[in-house]
Structures are given as structure tokens and as C-alpha cells.
What we know:
globular; binds zinc ion; single chain
Amino acid sequence: MCYKCFWPQPLCWCPTLHPMETRTRFVFLMSPKEFKQEKAGTGRLTHLCLPNSELRMGEGFDKNELVQALINDSQNYPVLLYPGREARNLSKGDLTLADLGGRRLVVFLIDATWGGARKILRLSPSLQRLPRIMFTPSAPSRYVIKQQPQEGCLSTLEAVHELLTALERSRLDRYENPTQLLGVFQRMQDFQLKCAADPTRPGYRRRPYRTPEERAAQPPHVGKRRMKFLKVETVPSSAA
Ligand SMILES: [Zn+2]
């Protein structure tokens, strides 16, 4: 086991990850559950690509020294990545250099399921009080493995890619190597799909994963009745 990337030594990611400097400081807050299932998670790999980032594990973060020091440092402009009505949308330019007023942007990202993220927030009033930011994803999730339940539900790695793209557009940061994060993501998925197709490996699945295109054609969690109620028109994929 490599204790940096937490993958088995022969599959260690570390030599292929190139540190990418950012002005923004990223802080990944990981729930213990996600930490255990880290194999499919992308938070740690993203953290290893970003020297100006931290990763902390826990359920509540109000007593976490590093988190509190970053929130309370007057040189910082701490925000929480969490979509919602009050969140400033970086893709729409809702956050500017003038807003930062020379302070350093510190972005807290919760790396957990939605349920896990809500729990972390509930147990961390200091995170609840932070201004929230969001972005409009430029592409639906590329995730095949986790089969994201809803549109707009991205892996941590994809979220950071989108965030850096939006930050660069707002001139709040420079995104040096946009292909790296997505390349890491693709390689990780390729490996896991290979495992899923190989009956001799522990991750073998009898039924293969559906591709994002297949999933997009069939919106999940929307029953027929609900679809009728919402007047969703299904367009044949050939016409799209
Ligand atoms: Zn490693």
C-alpha cells in the first residue's frame, strides 16, 4: 500500500501526478465513510495534484484546528462550495477580485455523499456561516463508476476542474493544466472498468456499468407519473 495515494504499491498514482500551483487554497473535508471507500473516491487524488490544498477527515469541523485557523485568518476569504439559492455562482461572475479585496480565497469542499455532506454541515455551524459558492457545470458528470444520481452531481475531481475553470474566467486564479485532472479521472475510471469486467478481480460486476450517455437517455428518480406531471418531453436520442 502506498500511504500517500492509498492505492496498492503496483498501482501507485504518485509518479504520474504533477503538482499544479493555485492561488486558491482548497480544503477537502472528508467524511469517515468516504475515507473508507476512498478507492472509488477522487478527493485524495485531487488533493495530491494541488500543493495548495489540505485534506482533513471528520464529521464535524468546528473543533478542527486547521479549519478554524483558516476561517478566522483575516487575510483569508473563506467560502464553502455548496449549491443553493444564496450561493454565488462563479460561472456567472458572482465573485470578483474586488470582493476578495486582496484576501486569499479559501474554498472548503465537502467530499461525501449528499447525506454525509448534510451531516457534516449540521455538526459544523462555523461552516454553515460561510458564504457559499457554486458553478454551473460545463458538462454532465463523466462518472461511470458511481452512477451519480442527479444531474449536477459531480465527483470531487470534476468539481475542482469546473471550479478552476470558473475561477480563471473570473480572473481569480490561473488554471495551469486543465487536462491533468480530467486525465487522472479518465485513467482511474479505465482501471476500475477493467476490474469490473474481469471475473478474477474483486471488483467484478456481472452487469457492466452504464455509460453517462445511457444514463442521460433515462432520467433516474423520475417515475412515469412524475414525468407526466412535470410535462417532460422525451426526445429520441437520434434527434438530440
Ligand atoms: Zn502513491
